[in-house]
């Protein structure tokens, strides 16, 4: 077995919004031991009690003064946009035309796609993210490249080829029929292979013809358990455009609903400009929201109402949305979400933040029986945080009085320097710990 020792923190339930987490929602061991066999958690307990019971043939990773948590999950990002993060000055629709589509055109070269997929997986792991729901480009080989890179690293990964047949450069457009057969071929090739899952991925209503959205809806019907991912109500110009493209639809969500794309396990990125009625239809159908705070600030899209979504029981995850998002770091994503929550008058607690990155995002992807916590049987994807991992964190760590403060420091000041190590299925990916 593989054994990780050190301070351990995980969530077994939603801690709620209070300064004090809901009873029984958080488990913290200041000298804990996590036992992993065949890539899964078999035991978690206090070092004092457990260590003496373990067999001789263990590989021990000792992380004193660090914080061992379930690997972070990112439920919305674009792997093709890694190199266009922080492109100046435009809102969504101009930003897509000016920066995003030209970059995505480079993925017509399979060698480039492979190179970027490898870089992307390395970068994600370097930032402590072990599972993600990813948009590839419209080129099917971009999805092949990402799945291959994830498979070789043993990661649980969900992704799909973008379906897009209009209002984009011709070189990026497929057709309804091509999107259909390319998606089906990718499903055949990758869905359920190792830890990989295919996701049906129409980019958003403006870049698909009604015929193509119908094809996507048919796919969603043929694979009822499969994730559908798209974008919804991010930007006012986008919303007006959808209204003119689909004059018969009641609203933007209705465009998706009419073709069967609003259903359980449909993930809608952004959902900034929505009302109670739309939230209610999302909640009823089991649709989920990917909240992308750094992206929403960067593109000037607006402030997502996380509290209202919670009140109306719409399952919500928190995501980087690279490359409109400004960092792959899910710690940086929390910092932005905190600042937005302050503007809205109810500061997000670090309990909520770290619950969301782990078990909350797992639940939002319907993966909470596999990842997101350290309950025995869970797949052992782990991030080891360093609460003193940068000069600023180190200063704060010296004064930190309790776990709440340590977590809040990481959430506000953390970046890749705060990621000490990552284990995927128990295996170290990047580590400075000594194995013995
Ligand atoms: N809407 C449609 N495509 C995109 C994209 O690539 N990024 C963001 N932020 N919004 C989108
Ligand atoms: Fe996006």
- What does the largest sheet look like? 9 strands, parallel
Count all strands and give the number. Answer: 17
Radius of gyration, in Å, reads 21 Å
**Name of the CATH class of the largest domain:** Alpha Beta
Average pLDDT: 97
CATH domain topology of the largest domain? TIM Barrel
Derived from helix and strand composition plus strand pairing, the structural class reads: alpha/beta
The CATH superfamily of the largest domain is Metal-dependent hydrolases
Helix content: 25-40%
How many domains comprise the coordinates? 2
Assembly level: single chain
Instruction: Give the names of the bound compounds.
Output: guanine, fe (iii) ion
Binned strand content: 15-25%
3D shape: globular
Number of helices: 15
- Distance between termini? 12 Å
CATH architecture level-2 label of the largest domain: Alpha-Beta Barrel
Architecture overview:
With 436 residues, the chain is α/β, with parallel strands linked by helices. It folds into two domains: 2-71 and 373-430, Urease, subunit C, domain 1, CATH 2.30.40.10; 72-328, TIM Barrel. The protein contains 15 helices and 17 strands. The protein has helices at 47-50, 92-105, 110-126, 140-153, 176-190, 210-222, 236-245, 252-258, 276-285, 293-298, 306-311, 330-343, 350-364, 391-399, 403-413, and strands spanning 2-11, 26-37, 40-46, 59-62, 67-70, 72-78, 129-135, 157-160, 162-163, 196-202, 227-232, 266-270, 288-291, 316-318, 382-385, 419-424, 427-430. Strands 6, 7, 8, 9, 10, 11, 12, 13 and 14 form a nine-stranded parallel sheet that branches. Helix 4 (140-153) links the parallel strand 7 and strand 8. Bound molecules: guanine and fe (iii) ion (FE). Residues 78, 92, 96, 100, 203-204, 231, 234, 295, 321, 324 line the site of guanine (GUN). Catalyzes the hydrolytic deamination of guanine, producing xanthine and ammonia. It catalyses: guanine + H2O + H(+) = xanthine + NH4(+). Pathway: Purine metabolism; guanine degradation; xanthine from guanine: step 1/1.
């Amino acid at each position: 077995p593989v054994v990780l020792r050190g301070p351990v923190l995980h969530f077994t339930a939603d801690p709620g919004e209070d300064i004090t987490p809901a009873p029984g929602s958080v488990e913290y061991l200041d000298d804990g031991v996590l036992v992993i066999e065949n890539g899964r958690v078999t035991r978690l307990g206090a070092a004092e009690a457990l260590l003496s019971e373990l067999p001789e043939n263990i590989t021990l990773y000792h992380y004193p003064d660090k914080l061992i948590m379930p690997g972070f999950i990112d439920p919305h990002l674009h792997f093709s946009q890694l190199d266009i993060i922080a492109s100046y000055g435009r809102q969504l629709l101009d930003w897509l035309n000016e920066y995003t589509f030209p970059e995505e055109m480079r993925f017509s070269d399979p060698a480039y796609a492979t190179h970027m997929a490898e870089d992307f997986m390395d970068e994600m792991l370097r930032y402590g993210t072990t599972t993600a729901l990813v948009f590839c480009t419209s080129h099917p080989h971009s999805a092949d490249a990402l799945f291959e890179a994830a498979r070789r690293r043993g990661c649980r990964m969900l992704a799909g080829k973008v379906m897009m047949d209009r209002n984009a450069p011709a070189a990026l457009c497929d057709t309804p029929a091509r999107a259909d057969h390319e998606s089906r071929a990718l499903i055949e090739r990758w869905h359920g292979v190792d830890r990989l899952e295919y996701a049906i991925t129409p980019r958003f209503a403006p870049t698909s013809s009604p015929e193509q959205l119908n094809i996507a809806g048919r796919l969603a019907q043929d694979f009822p358990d499969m994730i559908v991912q798209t974008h919804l109500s991010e930007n006012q110009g986008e919303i007006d455009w959808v209204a003119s493209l689909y004059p018969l639809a009641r609203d933007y969500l209705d465009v998706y609903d009419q073709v069967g794309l609003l259903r359980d396990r449909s993930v809608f990125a952004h959902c900034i400009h929505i009302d109670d009625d739309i939230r209610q239809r999302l909640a009823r159908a089991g649709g989920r929201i990917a909240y992308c705070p750094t992206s929403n600030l960067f593109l000037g899209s607006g402030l997502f109402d996380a509290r209202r979504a919670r009140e109306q029981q719409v399952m919500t995850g928190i995501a980087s949305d690279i490359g409109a998002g400004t960092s792959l770091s899910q710690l940086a994503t929390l910092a932005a979400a905190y600042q937005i929550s302050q503007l809205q008058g109810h500061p997000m607690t670090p309990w909520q933040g770290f619950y969301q990155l782990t078990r909350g995002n797992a639940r939002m992807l319907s993966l909470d029986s596999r990842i997101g916590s350290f309950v025995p049987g869970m797949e052992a994807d782990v991030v080891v945080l360093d609460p003193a991992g940068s000069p600023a964190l180190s200063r704060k760590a010296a004064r930190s009085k309790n776990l709440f403060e340590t977590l809040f420091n990481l959430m506000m000041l953390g970046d890749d320097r705060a990621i000490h190590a990552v284990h995927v299925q128990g295996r170290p990916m990047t580590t400075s710990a000594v194995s013995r």
